[in-house]
Specification:
Elements: E1 3-6, E2 19-21, H1 23-33, H2 46-53, E3 56-57, H3 67-75, H4 82-89, E4 94-98, E5 102-106, H5 114-130, H6 136-149, E6 152-153, H7 171-181, E7 185-191, E8 194-199, H8 200-203, H9 206-209, H10 215-230, E9 232-233, H11 235-242, H12 247-256, E10 261-267, E11 273-276
Length: about 280
């Protein structure tokens, strides 16, 4: 298994021998990359934390507070729960979409996320087709309601699906989710954790929607930014970080950028080693 370490800005000469990193050094590198090495106090920049992490996964699990709030609070204990939702609903400095799960991403990432809209839109369109869900006319009617009435949640619609279907999700929920995955709809805000859908152009600032990057540039951005936030990892780790590129695409990127990546050997806690970038 080959891991790599990010070396942007460094003049690296490739060698046959990998760079050896002790278990202690690897832990310190990873904790620093995750924003956990510094004292979690001082001036608070919630958007800066989200940008440094790449995304914050939303989670319904709650004991004291939901997991995404724990993630932010553990980086700076001056964080309070309403701050994240203000970035989403009022400042429009972040947007919600799907990495390996529902997540909050910095708005600066939006131009590099377009291929993910296409990938997931195609996938969810097949879900709808396979389950005989709403057709294009039905989806257009949902969009018309949202355009006329403003942001709406699933509870504002009433369609019935076949009993016993997957998760018993009604057809309108499949339609809303499909259009959200495809980027036609965006999360306007959440109330009691319920997602409110609105037309994407009314949520995403024009300056973010106006920027388009070629497919290759988007893959390059995804790989570079995943590895920078991981500190080191295998092509599989890079792929799993965003879940927005295939493993083959990541492997091709690693080969094309081999001169800027360092092959490393990471010592594990049990003294065994794994190869990394």
């Amino acid at each position: 298994m080959t891991h790599y370490i990010h070396s942007e800005g460094m003049d690296i000469k490739t060698t046959a021998m990998p760079l050896s990193i002790s278990n202690r050094a690897a832990r310190r590198l990873w904790l620093d990359a995750q924003g956990l090495s510094a004292t979690p106090t001082g001036p608070l920049d919630v958007l800066g934390i989200v940008e440094a992490l790449g995304f914050v996964q939303l989670d319904t699990i709650r004991a004291v507070s939901r997991a995404h709030h724990h993630i932010l609070w553990s980086r700076n204990q001056n964080y309070r729960e309403p701050m994240l939702w203000k970035l989403l609903a009022k400042d429009r400095a972040v947007f919600e979409h799907f990495t390996h799960d529902a997540s909050i991403l910095p708005m600066s990432s939006y131009p590099f996320w377009r291929r993910q809209f296409g990938r997931l839109g195609e996938k969810t369109a097949r879900w709808e087709a396979n389950r005989g869900m709403l057709n294009a006319g039905d989806r257009a009617a949902i969009l018309a309601r949202i355009e006329a009435e403003g942001p709406l949640a699933s509870k504002h619609f009433d369609t019935r699906g076949p009993k016993g279907a997957m998760w018993d999700r009604p057809p309108h929920k499949f339609a809303l989710d499909h259009m959200w995955y495809a980027g036609e709809l965006a999360t306007s805000h959440r109330e009691n954790f319920s997602k409110f859908y609105d037309l994407a152009h009314r949520v995403i600032p024009e300056e973010a929607r106006a920027v388009e990057h070629p497919e290759g540039a988007q893959i390059d951005w995804l790989c570079r930014n995943a590895l920078a936030r991981l500190a080191f990892g295998t092509p599989g780790d890079i792929k799993r970080f965003w879940e927005a590129a295939t493993l083959d695409e990541v492997k091709i990127w690693c080969e094309a950028n081999a001169a800027a990546l360092i092959d490393v050997e990471i010592e594990c806690a049990d003294r065994s080693t794994v190869r990394a970038l």
